[in-house]
Structure formats: C-alpha cells, structure tokens
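Something for you to look into today, if you have time. I want to see for myself how the chain folds. Leave the record below and I will have a look.
***
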Amino acid sequence: MTKTSFSGPLAAEFEDFAATLEASATANKAMLTWLRALDRLTKDSSLLLGTIDEALATAWLAPSESRGPNTRLARFYLLRRFCRFLAKRRPGTFIPGESLRPRRRPSKPPHIYTSEEVRILLDGALSLRDWEKKAHHCPVRSKTMHTLILLLATAGLRISEALHLTLQDVDLQDGILSIRQSKFRKSRLVPLSRGTLDALRHYHDLRIAVAPIDPAEAFFISGRGKAYGTSYVQTMFRTITIQAGLRGSKGRGPRLHDLRATFAVTRLLQWYRDGDNVMARLPLLSTYLGHACVSDTEVYLRITTALLEEASTRYHVFAQSILPLGGTS
C-alpha cells in the first residue's frame, strides 16, 4: 500500500478510505495527493460537527488560479466519494450534491499527427543540443528524446509508462516491454515492432556506455544517469514542436500524449481499410493500451474525419450489397 501519512482529526478515516482505493485499484498519485490536501484542510478547520460540513466542502471546491475546472471536478468526485464513506461512520457528514459540482471544461480533441509530422519531430529531437558543459553533461539527450518519441508513436505508451521503464523491463531479445503497475494499477506486456526494437537496441548500446547498467535503473536517462521527470520531457518536447513549426511560442499546441492517440487512431484506421471487424478487435487494442475498459478505447473511434469517412464507406459498401437499389432511394 502507498504510504499516506494523514494527521488531521479524520486521519483514521482517511487511512481506511485510501486503503479501499488501493484495494479497488482506483487509487493514483493525484488522488492520494488530494486526500492529503483534504486532510490538511480538515486539520486547519474547526470541524464543529466533528465531520465534514458544507462550509468545508465549499472551501475545498473553491476556484483558484492553480486549479482549472477539470481539476476542481475531479476533486468534487473524490470528496463526494469520501463523504459517502465517512457518513457511514460519522452521521451528519455533508455529502456534496449537484449544486456544488463544477462544470467541466470542454475537452480539446487530441492532435493526430501525420507521418510527416512524426518524422519532423524525430528529426527535431536529434537536433537538440547534447550539452557537454561540466555542470550538465548529457551526451545522449537528443538520442533519448528521439527514441522516446519513436516509442510513443509506434507502441502507444503513456509518457509516464515509458519513463518508468527499467533496463530489466525492456526485453531486447524478444521485443517485449513489461509495463508494471501503471494507471489503475494495471500491468501488461507490450510487444514491439521490428523497427522499434532495433531503435531500442541502438539506444541501449549508447545508454549503457554513459550510465550504470543496474537492471533496476531507468532505461531512458538524463545526463545524471537517472530517469527524466515527465515535466522536463514535456518541456523538451514543447521546444521541439516550436522549432518544427507545429505550434507557436505561446498558447496550446500538439502534446506529447497526442502520440498515443495517433497510434490508436492509426491502428483503427488500418483495420477499417483492411476490412477487419473493428468492433471485434477493439478489446485487443484496449488491452494493448492498458485501458480500464473498452469504452475508454471507443473514444478514438470518434476522433478523426478519416475514421468516420472509412466507417461511412464501409456502411455504404455493406448497404449496396444487401439493400434494394444499393440502399439509395
């Protein structure tokens, strides 16, 4: 179980609730961080009723510059779930209703990269400066980003999954990645294409020449021989996309995570064009991506015009074969 360290007046309840989240495989780092923040809020509040009341719930859900609508909505659902748990032990607990539920910011569709854009990103990664200064020596910086981008584009991993890979997780003989305890505490094996495997083998040879080869050490490394943090990799990726002309220096643009969506959509589109039963194959893609359920994967079916056009074409071919006048009036 993940270490929590609650210390407020409801510490025992928080500990037990966190344990139920762990047991149900629905806990993640963000949830546990928010639970600790809620614990601190209860510690700083008077809790006149000895439990969570409406005033504390309102304070927890209050807008702030550091919390967008989607974050506040996630905090709302966590609070409501905890309050329902707490109410069984402490009668009088306030359970937030719909009147307090924040509105979700409309989600931005992912950017589906073209093959040319992926090539531009890979070239841009290789153009990154491999700093040779004594204070920040990183001879494989550009190769790390190049191989990371290639892996995300061809295997559909989450960036956190790629950065958490250790040397022992990457089977360079059989071409299998072991993804351990990822989102929703799910683990899985991910087979690789021949081209991706060759790229990983090449990077591995460079990597072991500049960093320790302990099997438990990170596969993708920084100049210090340690795993990169997600935020730093995202910053480097942003630099690459700006230099490649895929975004401006300000505002939003294509994201690293969009490579995962690109992989999923490309796979679905290929199945459509090959005449495969896409809905029958969807569970396979869901398992490969590590989704909690198939419905999470179905979202990709509605992302691009190309997929919708292929589905429409498939339907019209079907209609022409079985309906009078080819399905036309």
The chain has three domains: 11-100, 115-243, 259-327.
